[in-house]
Queue: 3 jobs
Job 1
Amino acid sequence: MRKITTWNVNSVRTRETHVADFLEREQPDLLLLQEIKCEEHQFPALTFSNLGYQSAVVGQKSYNGVAILHRAPVEVTHRKLPSMTEADSHARYIEVRTDNLTVGNLYLPNGNSNGDVGYAYKLEWMAALRAHAAAMIDADQDFILAGDYNICPTDADYAKGAISSTDALVRPESRAAFNALIWLGLTEAVRALHPAETLYTFWDYQAGAWDRNSGLRIDHALLSPRIAERLTSTTIHKSERAKTQPSDHVPVSIELG
């Protein structure tokens, strides 16, 4: 397992050609997709199968949804984030095991909708993610938790004026929950190799955000200790945002030695 990419595609059926082009060009071992916005039977698995990729999908009608495209065989270990209540019907997590590595693909709640209830759900989800990560560390597992975290970890991770100081993506409680993951001993891949660069992974469709480079960095890969030691490079594929009908997010790749 050498190259793993995460990408919030904001509708896989709309972005099917973009995803196929990316697979042909970049050939990741795993491609983690979020916000696929379709049920499993609607997922364009045949397109990706023709390129040598099989699909593991947790879908939901019109909203959310996650999938992992893989070339080598994988074992699906979870189709829902452990520790979340059974009442949680959102399709936000899928996890696979391959080559002695666990890879969790996550689409963390935004937290800005539905008032206090929506924000409480975001924090509940993050607490469950931390509990799962802690359990894997206690079990001495090697793992990666990657996807759309919907959090700017620091003020350096968003352009001035791109977001309100009261937005759920930057609220102190959100950042504290993200830091609680890091304090388990995890490494945030991009900042490990690019600690001071101005880097974004999301540009809103509104207000000319792309043209003004008014972006956010909210797509992350967190690595367990032994996997962090193998990290050799990270790439934010910014050119994807310049395409016709792009997602508002771009892919983020990590490579392991």
Job 2
Amino acid sequence: MSATIEALHPAHGVPPSGPRPDETARLEDFGGIEIADLDLSQPLTEAQRDRLLRTFRSHPVLVFRDQALTKDQQYAFTLNFGEIEGAHVNRLIDAKNYTPVHTVSNLDSDGNPSEILRERGNYYWHSDKSYHAVPSLMTMLHAVELPPKGGETQFANTAKAYAALPAEARGELEGLRANHSWEASRIQCGGRPATPEQIAERPPVDHPLVRIHPDTGAKALYLGNHASHIVGWPVADGQALLRRMIQHVQQPEFVYTHRWRQGDLVLWDNRCSVHRALPHEAMGVHRRVLHRTVVKGSVPY
């Protein structure tokens, strides 16, 4: 391990939770975009769909305000981006009658707000389903019910973060592969250990630490809480490198914090970003309910 990688941002903390006052400008600085002229409850025209897909290819986060979608309408809109994933290991919400448009919330089994975190991994930087051999391409959240304060979602642009590394460090990362696993993710976030059935359902996989975006050719760091170690390295050394890279990508210049408004629909590219949820105040009092869809991606290279 070289001194160049060893010295990279050894002690950077968590970035500020709030964006600067001009949130739209901050989103654009990050590389995202707000789209204001589409009613997503209606079918897109061919021209609208083509424009949307072009925009998505060049922006890791898209924000749509003031949307009111049923689950069926969200499902139909999501299909514009590809095949919808229809299963999630250990999905607790909607588990008895799983639908591809599932609910993410702080509600307990009786439908009441709860401070007990049943899925801790959402609060750690991650790329969705990176523990799959074929990980997720895109994730979409639609805000249905929101608390009065808090509950933001943070995004980090891992393509910008990779490009900002010194050339020597970028060269040292080339060719490295990280092991990603559901079990390691559970352990790293302090959740309940995975069951043997869950481990068998989602066995560990490895992916390039630096992946190439299949649409743009841009390189991005591919990491997060699901990544446990570097293949072929001593485990402790690999874990230390992954920690330093996460510290690097969470610097404020690479991060956008989305302050949710009622009706927001936000979608993001898992191939060139990581994200995490922030807790909201009085989680046992205020409801936070979002509808989520995920699009299947391709094998990272």
Job 3
Amino acid sequence: MRYSSGAIEALIDEFAKLPGIGRKTAQRLAMHVLQERRPEVEKLALALLEVKDKVTRCTVCQNITDLGTDPCTVCTSTGRDRTVICVVESPVEVLAFEKTGHYKGLYHVLHGVISPLDGIGPDDIKVRELLARLQPGTPGEVREVVLALNPTVEGETTSLYIGKLLKPLGISVTRIARGIPVGAELEFIDEATLSRAMEGRLAI
């Protein structure tokens, strides 16, 4: 269905470009904006512009931070374990780990994974920046790097690549455990997940 308003169609088209947003959802969002009071819409527009104008990347961990707060609050926190760095693909994973409240180390965001089919190589992600943090003589002594990349072919390739680079540095390289989700029944778990759960079993 096409609306008689070009402005509405343009807004729907823009919303539909967002990840995970289909055209029907884009239509609902556009109609919601249309029905909102102007001050509320202006707040939304201002928030969108401020994200582009005021958000940057931390020069240490590559996570997102506000302009004027670099290094970020995680990197400068005195309460973090500075001997451990968790390597993730995007800032979304940092938020996921922080929500758990259990991980107290530092982070490093790669902003992607190695994917030859997409033309993305090691130089296209933040691997060099990670290595710079681990060189002898850098402030703090990192003893462990935790690879927490998604269990995809690209994630596995990236983990193997980083693992080989870090091995000569004498730093312990670990991976997050993968296995059975809480509340799941074993009969419904696929073979690959069961295999990983068995390989990553823990002592009790």
